[in-house]
Design goal:
It is a single chain. By secondary structure, this protein is an alpha+beta fold. Among the domains are: 110 residues, no CATH class; 65 residues, no CATH class. Helix content is 52%, strand content 10%. It has a five-stranded mixed beta sheet with strand order 4-3-5-7-6. It has a four-stranded antiparallel beta sheet with strand order 8-9-14-11, with no helix packed on it. The chain has a three-stranded antiparallel beta sheet with strand order 10-13-12, with no helix packed on it. α10 packs parallel to α12 and α11 packs antiparallel against α16. It is globular.
């Protein structure tokens, strides 16, 4: 039998490697072009954190936590600016720990905190192709198949409605783990298939760091990894069992510091069900690309072409693996099946509603991209088009053409600036419609804050005296002011699943539908001097207790006609900062009630104590310092 010479083998390998290198270059170039397109106007290095929707919320968390780490060596703090006193870094920011540590580390290396914070977004963008490609290779895909999986994943990342919304709106931590989970899953699979125990080291590192980024990583991995472990359970020696248990112990150990804090203060947690809760009929809506509920899909068009391309082709790949008894079938069938059911049926179960189950459809699509690419690879290896009947080319070509058009429309939705403008009618009337057929919409890129936001930040800084609070109706503006001023704000994210949200009037009364006398009591109780309204609330804005003093862009600013003091019994001077409330000029023989939320780790100095004062509509209550006490005293977080 003739054999190929080494020179012939080398020539053949080189002939195959050149197209692969070109294909890699094309895919990476497309990724970098899209990355630059969405971030080229982002204010990464302007000295302020990125601002929009969830970005401001996470920026506030980052600023408070990094200051606490720097000054007290603690990862949480009592935040006097938020909601009349709020335990920042305890429970609500469990999805932000990795981002905070990233920012803190780069800050200590010399970058500003806002710049370090912003660079995390670029890092998450850039890691997509490498993560998907490496995961695909660990799952035994050929290089060109892995490149197909990477291409599908990039389509989901940039052109799927929910995939885009996740990182565009600031949910960058979840967006990160929505594709990062592929790598630990592939390492776990490769460990069992090859028996290489050293693979457990990068697995432990990835799992530990990934859970710091977002605890949803557990939800994404628990079912397929449990299935893999169960399949090999009996064949493993005790040392192998011990090594796997060691990985789990390492993950828990690395995350124990924030988990302990979260459990310690879990009694403040409330229900959190309003966002990303799917129902079975949403499968139909998603397949048709229809938007039914913005709290489910985000404030973006429900573009789902790449998602269903991945899911349908991935299902075909699973069928093929099942027939071939491929060992990859089990983890992918379990993972895709569980996450798909979680996305569309998790909303029927209370516990799953607390973790925004519909969002899992994005990692489901990323996971399906690997069997989808394997399916394409199998078709190519089987040379299915050889001997393809001529009569079949026409319907096949038509189907392919329509599929490409379907995906192209999703791409164009996110690239509206590439479309030509629709000219006015012959009468000169301008029509509010684009070439694409929709009214003009955002291109869903990151931009600097709009001018009216900068203007209102300047106004608040000018009028904040530290002795009163700002009630802010628009939650986005509330978070924005918290991230850019020293003002004490009642507002921000209304659905914050902590009892402290009761201090926000617009959490209780979203349209301001409150009686005049009740409003007056609320404003005095929480020491509100200023009210900022952005949406249209005509009845609320007619309240006699409000006096309009300024208009900035869409925001109307009102001064309140109530006595304002951060102490209840009699006025005193208060100076509040992170973890500390200084009180001056009190009567030592009278109790002092501070209009700040009570918290169990707060202590009074010197030689005084604090008690909890209940409030009718606020389960947290205020701080009371019983007499006798010094004329000047301080409430500090004693940890």
């Amino acid at each position: 039998m003739a054999t190929s010479s080494p020179r012939m083998t080398h020539t053949t390998a080189r002939r195959h490697s050149i197209p692969m290198a070109l294909a890699f270059a094309v895919v990476l170039t497309i990724h970098l072009v899209l990355f630059v397109q969405v971030e080229r106007q982002a204010p990464i290095f302007n000295g302020e954190p990125l601002s929009f929707i969830d970005f401001d919320t996470h920026a506030v968390q980052m600023l408070r936590v990094t200051e606490a780490l720097d000054r007290w060596g603690k990862h949480w703090a009592y935040d006097v600016q938020t909601l009349a006193g709020y335990p920042e870094g305890t429970v609500f920011n469990a999805d932000n720990k990795g981002w905070e540590l990233w920012t803190y580390a780069l800050w200590k290396l010399g970058l500003s905190r806002p710049t370090a914070f912003n660079l995390f977004v670029l890092f998450v963008h850039l890691l997509v192709p490498a993560t998907v490609y490496l995961s695909s290779r660990l799952f035994r895909l050929e290089p060109w198949e892995a490149l197909i999986a990477t291409s599908i994943a990039l389509g989901i990342w940039f052109f799927d409605g929910l995939g885009r919304w996740s990182w565009y709106s600031g949910g960058i931590s979840f967006a990160f783990v929505s594709y990062l989970f592929l790598l630990p899953l592939s390492l776990f699979y490769a460990h069992f298939r090859t028996g290489k125990r050293w693979l457990l080291w990068p697995l432990a590192a990835l799992m530990s760091l990934g859970h710091l980024v977002h605890p949803s990583l557990f939800v994404l991995l628990v079912v397929p990894m449990t299935g893999l472990y169960a399949r090999h359970f009996r064949a493993l020696r005790w040392t192998q069992h011990a090594a796997i248990v060691g990985v789990a112990v390492a993950v828990i150990g690395v995350n124990s510091w924030w988990l302990a804090t979260a459990f310690r203060f879990a009694h403040y947690v409330t229900d959190h069900e309003p966002f990303f809760v799917g129902r079975l009929f949403d499968i139909v809506l998603d397949a048709a690309g229809l938007t039914d509920n913005l709290t489910r899909t985000g404030l973006v068009g429900n573009r789902t072409g790449f998602r269903f391309l991945s899911l349908i082709a991935g299902f075909m790949g699973l069928v093929l693996w099942r027939k071939q008894r491929d060992d990859r079938f089990l983890p992918f069938a379990l993972g895709i099946g569980f996450l798909f059911v979680m996305a569309y049926a998790g909303g029927y179960v209370w516990i799953f509603r607390q973790i925004q189950p519909y969002r899992n459809i994005v990692p489901t699509a990323f996971l399906a991209s690997i069997p989808a690419a394997a399916f394409v690879g199998q078709l190519a290896r089987n040379n299915i088009f050889k001997g393809f009947p001529r009569l079949m080319w026409a319907p096949f070509g038509l189907l392919s053409f329509l599929s490409v058009l379907y995906l192209a429309k999703d791409v164009m939705y996110f690239l509206p600036f590439c479309l030509p403008a629709v000219p006015p009618l012959p009468t000169g009337e301008i029509v509010n419609i684009t070439t694409y057929g929709f009214p003009p919409h955002r291109d869903f890129r990151h931009y600097p804050p709009e001018k009216h936001l900068d203007d209102i930040v300047a106004w608040v800084r000018q009028h904040d005296d530290g002795q009163s609070r700002f009630l802010v109706e628009w939650w986005v503006l509330g978070e924005h002011l918290l991230s850019r001023t020293q003002a004490q704000v009642l507002g921000g994210f209304r659905e914050r699943n902590m009892e402290h949200r009761a201090a926000n009037l617009f959490h209780r009364f979203p349209k301001g539908e409150i009686a005049d006398d009740a409003l007056a009591r609320y404003l005095e109780q929480y020491a509100v001097r200023w009210v900022i309204v952005s949406l249209e609330l005509p009845e609320f804005e007619k309240k006699p207790v409000l006096e309009q003093v300024a208009t900035i862009g869409p925001h109307r600013i009102y001064r309140t006609r109530v006595p304002v003091s951060l102490t209840q019994e009699e006025p005193a001077e208060v100076s509040a900062s992170l973890n500390r409330i200084d009180v001056y000029g009190t009567n030592p023989n009278r109790d002092v009630t501070l209009r700040f939320h009570w918290f169990e780790t707060l202590v009074c100095e010197p030689q005084c104590r604090i008690e909890r004062t209940p409030l009718a509509d606020d389960p947290v209550g205020f701080i009371r310092v019983p007499a006798p006490h010094p004329t000047n005293f301080a409430i500090v977080n004693g940890y």
